[in-house]
Design a protein that fits this description.
homodimer, about 220 residues, mainly alpha, three-stranded antiparallel sheet, about 50% helix
Amino acid sequence: MLTARSCLLTTARAAAGLQASSAVRSKHTLPDLPYDYNALEPVISAEIMQLHHSKHHATYVNNLNVAEEKLQEAVAKNDVSSVIGLHGALKFNGGGHLNHSIFWQNLCPGGSGEPEGALLEAINRDFGSFQNMKDKLSASTVAVQGSGWGWLGFNKASGKLQIAACANQDPLEATTGLVPLFGIDVWEHAYYLQYKNVRPDYVKAIFQVANWNDVAARFSAAGGK
Amino acid sequence: MLAAKQIALRSARLPLTSFAANRKKHTLPDLPYDYNALEPVISAEIMQLHHSKHHATYVNNLNLAEEKLGDAVAKNDVSTVIGLHGALKFNGGGHLNHSIFWQNLCPGGSGDPSGELAELITRDFGSFQAMKDKLSASTVAVQGSGWGWLGYNKGSGKLQIATCANQDPLEATTGLVPLFGIDVWEHAYYLQYKNVRPDYVKAIFEIANWNDVA
């Protein structure tokens, strides 16, 4: 089981990705956490991590597989209406799987320190400073109405970093075109057992466990400079 | 000193400019029971946070949004009036929904529906159990935060089940009159039921106040 080295090892397996679809589609599986359930304490409790990973994320994976099974059948039968009707389940469960798979990699025990290199230059260029970026991302994330995610994303067309928020499990790239770099889950299940209604405290604290190496790897993979 | 006629003319001309000055603030309604009164179905800890933090925040933020609305209307700033819609719907809906919710519940529940309400339920769903099954299924299926509702369709005269996202208020969103609502924002149940929303939805019928619904 990984411990202190996990921030760099986590980076090495960044963006594990989902299975490519084909005639012989493999099922999606729940990715292992790159660290123990208690490894993100005191920022995120072991209880939250265990429920979040083994219950919530696992359910998205299972339900995504069920929805994709139905999708294959509908396509095989040329049932366009059902194909369209499955959109909600695919977006919700597929988005949930995508988002959480990124999230576990975005975090690491004790955090990785501050961003460096090309990522830091881009942050300074597009936000003025690392603190400014954190302030903007925090404000947008705290302001999400209901369930959703705050994101630091990369706009491939403009070459700039951008902050965005998505509702529910809507996946960032499919929804906005931005490549997801760092996400903050603000569904209440992500923090309530520990932070109760005080979402701002959770959002402030999560930067202490941010893995900027993983964020930098995503930025680089997306063509960011 | 204005003549009576001038005062009457002024009042008739721009009624909206006075709405901000005369508007009373919204207040957090008291619960009709103690925080622990709905145990074991809903814990005292949840009730205290839900009422004194979550609902209270909607009330405060609704008052803020309405203050800004009053200013924007007075300045004829249509863009800002429209821009306030999100805050009004979210906080206003939150206040409306929770105000109904606290009344929809009572310690130990009220027993099964009776009288005209029971007849309508049987007519429109086949049985009380069938209505509970449908309402439960719809409510559990809400993606993200939202509410499940038993509502009344004034147009058709029928009972209907509906769900709304976030704090979208039932009547403004669907036209249905809200009768009984089940809050499935995670803050409504997570401390006690964790991810098992179906258990919470099943249990909440034990404390439903059908007298209020009727």
